[in-house]
Design brief:
The protein is of the alpha/beta class and 340 residues long. It has 12 helices and 8 strands. It has an 8-stranded mixed β-sheet with strand order 7-5-6-4-1-2-3-8, with helices on both faces. The longest helix is centred in the C-terminal third of the chain and has 34 residues. The chain binds uridine-5'-diphosphate (UDP) and magnesium ion.
Length: 340
């Protein structure tokens, strides 16, 4: 049984060695083999150099794929899932916020209950800025109300999946990816383990408040059509309201004459209705934007280099010719480059 550990890395030069150490410690007594697949998501620091060093030390166990630029964590996860060879696959952050100590428990639970997926969720959000927690909660509430795809509050991307589930996730090739939603959408038997929130071990989070807000808005738009309905609803309500007001004003003018005061209220109504229209257009525009991106069929990511390439060129240099293994991995890389 092989376990593939997928690790998206963006500016993680400090955390990678600590991460490997922690995983080794957690898995050393487990009757399982494991491989690492690091995805360097266009890091601006020395992450790639660190990855190369690590992979040189353990060429059979460590692999890396480096993107040509920052494509985002979603693209990195997708690349990782495509490249993973294991019968079991797990995705983990490099910063040890996904505790590797949970892995044995997850493996045991998966085995005991014959599950396809064991997810993890944070019991609490200790150490997180209050405003971020508030919006996170709001997001899960909105998401679960608006969308048929239910999401567990506090669930992490950190999860252990069977090959069957990974293949199902890979069948979803959409460009706008929201992994939490996709994991939930594909179904399969899933159970969650809870753990106390951890702070990042080193380095800095790459998510600002705004990037998270945008990400959650994308999540809702990707998995729900309710905002579109909301737009029509707002339009209908304001139309009916304006219609009734108009009748009222006409009747009042007929009965009591027309005092010419009141243009400030008129202007504010114009602005209000104009604002509503822009809001609705914005919501509709968001969906059209998604369709636009989807129809372009661009690749999810572009690979600059990878450990497989490196191993191949080493072999070619030595004149070792093509082993079936190497042509396979070349093929795999080609596929991952062209899929989109
Ligand atoms: N990450 C990535 N690409 C990005 C941003 C983040 O691959 O554009 C990786 C990052 O290296 C880390 C994981 O995604 O392994 C989670 O990121 P981070 O810790 O910054 O997010 P947070 O835990 O604060 O939500
Ligand atoms: Mg983190």
């Amino acid at each position: 049984m092989l376990l593939s550990i997928i690790v998206p890395c963006y500016n993680e030069e400090e955390t990678i060695p600590l991460f490997i150490e922690a995983v080794e410690k957690a898995l050393k007594d487990q009757p399982i083999k494991w491989e690492y697949l690091f995805i360097d998501d266009g890091s601006k620091d020395q992450t790639l150099t660190v990855l190369k060093e690590v992979c040189q030390k353990k060429p059979d166990q460590c692999h890396y794929v480096a993107f040509s630029r920052n494509f985002g964590k979603e693209a990195a996860l997708y690349a990782g899932l495509q490249g993973a060879k294991g019968d079991l696959v797990t995705v983990m952050d490099a910063d040890l916020q996904d505790p590797p100590e949970l892995l044995p428990e997850m493996l045991a639970l998966m085995e005991a209950k014959k599950l396809d997926c064991v997810g993890t969720r944070r019991k609490n959000r200790v150490g997180e800025p209050l405003i971020r927690s508030f919006f996170a909660r709001l997001f899960y509430r909105l998401m679960n109300r608006f969308s048929e795809t239910q999401m567990v509050d506090g669930a992490r991307d950190f999860r252990l999946m069977s090959r069957k589930m990974v293949d199902a996730v890979l069948e979803i090739t959409e460009y706008n990816r929201f992994s939490k939603g996709i994991f939930s959408w594909v179904g399969f038997e899933t159970e969650y383990l809870s753990y106390e929130n951890r702070e990042r071990i080193a380095g800095q989070t790459s998510w600002s408040f705004w990037s998270l807000l945008k990400y959650s808005f994308d999540g809702i738009v990707n998995f729900s059509e309710v905002p579109l309905m909301l737009a029509s609803l707002i339009g209908a309500v304001s139309c009916i309201g304006a219609g009734m007001a108009l009748v009222f004003i006409i009747v009042r003018a007929l009965l009591f004459g027309d005092p010419t005061s009141g243009w400030p209220s008129m202007v504010s109504i114009f602005l209000f209705v104009g604002g509503l229209q822009l809001l609705c257009l914005g919501i509709i525009g968001k969906y059209i934007g998604k369709i636009f991106l989807e129809t372009k069929h661009r690749p999810h990511y572009l690979v600059k280099e990878s450990s497989q390439c490196e191993q191949l060129s080493e072999k070619e240099k030595l004149g070792a010719g093509k082993s079936p293994e190497s042509s396979n991995s070349k093929e795999r890389l080609k596929n991952s480059n062209s899929q989109g």
